[in-house]
Amino acid sequence: MIKLEARLFGAAMGLLIAINAWGGEPGPAVTAVQKRWDEVMFAMPKPQREHELELLASQAGTARTANPRDPNALIWEGIVLSSWAGEKGGVGALSLVKRARADFEQAIALDATAMEGSAYTSLGSLYYQVPGWPLAFGNDDKARELLLKGLKINPRGIDANYFYGDFLRDQKDWKGAEAALTKAVGAPQRPGRELADQGRRKEAQALLGTVRQQLAGR
After folding, report:
1. Which of 137, 166, 131, 170 is nearest to 151 (CA)?
2. How far is it, in rounded angstroms, from Cα 164 to Cα 134?
3. Phi, psi (rounded to 5 degrees) for 44
4. Residues 87-119 pLDDT 10s
5. What is the DSSP letter of 188?
6. Is the torsion defined by CA of 88, 94, 96, 101 positive or negative?
7. Hey, how many other C-beta atoms are within 10 angstroms of the C-beta on 33?
8. What is the pTM of this model?
């Protein structure tokens, strides 16, 4: 993900989700953040998203502060901050993605398998979408490493395959991108995540169409 204006700062980074694998189901505060994020990112007109994500970031921060050692709360704060950065754009978004990176790194330190490895996938997504040095920390090699770790934990996951496919498309690995995005389109439904799954699957189908056009043009 370089691509300062065209990628991170031009389009929302709808970062990830899954069912919690740490200590049972997520608490009600974290679940409320997840449900609201689904609504904002997949059912709300784009012009309204930045403001709503700013509000949701405050709610996610409260949930994280109340549960500082819950990796689910950290992951969801990171997801909200990343998505807000994507809608906000510009240099002002850099501080948000740096905060998101810290959340994902803390979540991995606490339980790397929480939310089926979503911290790895989310963090990997940041590494290929944000600018590299000196503006930020973008690094495609690090992105690949993290995205593959997420896939190892959740090989059939819609988000893990979608973001790996998008990364490979960004690398112009068209065949690899086609394989990953095909898996994303056919990924199993997540209970309670119907809205997010529908939206992500549409994104995967659109990206898959673009990749296949590239393959057909060879």
Report:
1. 166
2. 25
3. -115, 140
4. 998 888 999 999 999 999 999 999 999 999 999
5. P
6. positive
7. 25
8. 0.89
Question: What six digits make up the tokens of 186?
Answer: 């056919």
Length of the chain in terms of residues written:
218
Residue 137 amino acid letter: F
Nearest 5 degrees, angle CA 166-CA 169-CA 171? 115
Q: Per-residue pLDDT tens for 115-149?
A: 999 999 999 999 999 999 988 999 999 999 999 99
> How far is 16 from 80, CA to CA, in rounded Å?
10
Contacts of residues 141-146 at CB distance under 8 Å and 24 or more positions apart, as own/partner, are 143/1, 143/167, 146/120, 146/121
Give the separation between CA 164 and CA 100, rounded to whole angstroms.
19
CA dist list (Å): 101 to 37, 138, 178, 186, 193: 18, 11, 28, 29, 24
Which structure tokens are listed for 206?
Answer: 């659109």
